[in-house]
Amino acid sequence: MSRSSDEQLGPRALNRATLARQLLLERATMPALAAIEHLAGMQAQAPRAPYVGLWTRLRDFRAQALSELVETRRAVRGPLMRATLHLVSARDWFAFRPLVQPVLERSFAGSPFDIGGVDVLELLATGRAQIEERPRSRAELGELLARRWPEIDPSSLAQAITYLLPAVQVTPRGLWAKSGQARWTTADNWLGGQLDAEPSPEQIVLRYLAAFGPATVNDIQMWSGLTRLAAVVDSLRARLLTFRDQRGAELFDLPDAPRPDPDTPAPPRFLPEYDNLLLSHADRTRFITGGERVPLQPGLGARSGSLLVDGSFRGTWSIMRDRETAVLRVEPFEPLFDRDSIAGEGESLLRFAVEDTSDHDIRFAAL
To answer: Beta strands 360-364 and 325-332: pairing type?
Structure first.
């Protein structure tokens, strides 16, 4: 049996607990790879977003540290949780990818891409051979596959490969100082390993709680995209604590995970676009109190994102150039009363994100 408690954890208590685990109450001193694993992966739809995500969480983080991990293939980007691109360690890729295979299959089946009438096994074998011959973009892959299936939309053929095979994006995509078209190959070809033969859903639940708890079963399912996790959580009850949220829903947590005092100060933090902090709970009220949508700006990333004030989503930010000056524009949802602290953190962000200029300006948009 789990160690149950009648204790209720309100939104602020949940906020501080998750902020602590997300390294957002106080910057941590740990290597970048350890941080990526601690966070159970990082959203990487925008390939440079994880750089800002690590900068805001780690002391003395340098972009080159992450670039080296990606170049040496100790970290990799590919579709994982929620069928979205994540940056994970190579070790976590092989552990997580077989678990989320049903998520990717379901996502592809519900997409507008149509490969009706195609022998899927033949398609996957053909696609695997093409991307293992050399990494290819989806456009290149679709053109090659269309020679075998000319009656099928080439983009659908290519999307099937990158959804249904354990495929990853290769460098220079995902590097800080370089860029390149998104090109794909198989993970075993790029990383030189194999998917876990017996992946553990119990371990992915525990990893989630360590990074995002306390949480409900629905929260875990929202983050992962997996379904039917209640039985998995039940099997772990003897190892977990339980609480209740303000609505009476059962929360699960690791006994030794941090649960700071709800009055613990939370400094302002600039998050990258689509940071997992704001996406990984079914009930997001611990961070989003006004129902605001989390923006995902197109592009390579590291030029826009979300602003946390006192631990809550209070605005967005963007970086632009004004002649020789790098300008950080903050657009709040409501009045901000600690602008000096926000501006100080913003100045640090500009020094990190815009290295080729010494002239910085912080501007707050009018409400």
So the answer is: parallel
Q: Dig out the tokens for 53 from the structure.
A: 């995500």
What end-to-end distance do the CA atoms of the chain give, in Å? 51
Q: Which of 50-54, 69-73, 355-359 has the lowest mean pLDDT?
A: 355-359
- In the three-class reduction of DSSP (H, G, I as helix; E, B as strand; rest coil), residue 356 is classed as coil
Written as one string, the DSSP assignment of 171-210 is: TTTT-SS------EEEHHHHH-----SS--HHHHHHHHHH
pTM score of the predicted model: 0.96
pLDDT in tens, 105-147: 999 999 999 999 999 999 999 999 999 999 999 999 999 999 9
Q: Could you tell me which residues are beta bridge partners of residue 169?
A: 77, 184
Q: 23 with 38: CB under 8 angstroms? A: yes
Burial grade of 86 (CB within 10 A; 0-12, 13-18, 19 or more): buried
Q: What is the dihedral of CA 331, 333, 335, 338, to 10 degrees?
A: -60
**315: exposed, middle or buried (C-beta count within 10 Å: 0-12, 13-18, 19+)?**
buried
Neighbours of 231 (CB within 10 A): 9
The sign of the torsion formed by the CA atoms of 261, 262, 266, 269 equals positive
Q: Is cis: bond before 172, omega within 30 of 0? A: yes
Q: Given strand 184-186, what is the order of strands in its sheet?
A: 42-43, 85-89, 75-79, 167-169, 184-186
Q: How far apart are CA 56 and CA 351, in angstroms?
A: 12
Cβ atoms of residues 283 and 303 within 8 Å: no
In angstroms, rounded to a whole number, what is the distance separating the alpha carbons of residues 127 and 257? 43
Q: Domain spans of the chain?
A: 1-63+198-367
SS3 88: strand
CA 121, CA 104: separation in Å to the nearest integer?
Answer: 16
Q: How far apart are CA 328 and CA 346, in angstroms?
A: 7
CA dist., res. 113 & res. 158, Å (int): 10
Tell the burial category of 68 from Cβ atoms under 10 Å away from its Cβ (0-12, 13-18, 19+). middle
The C-alpha R_g of the chain, in whole angstroms, comes to 21
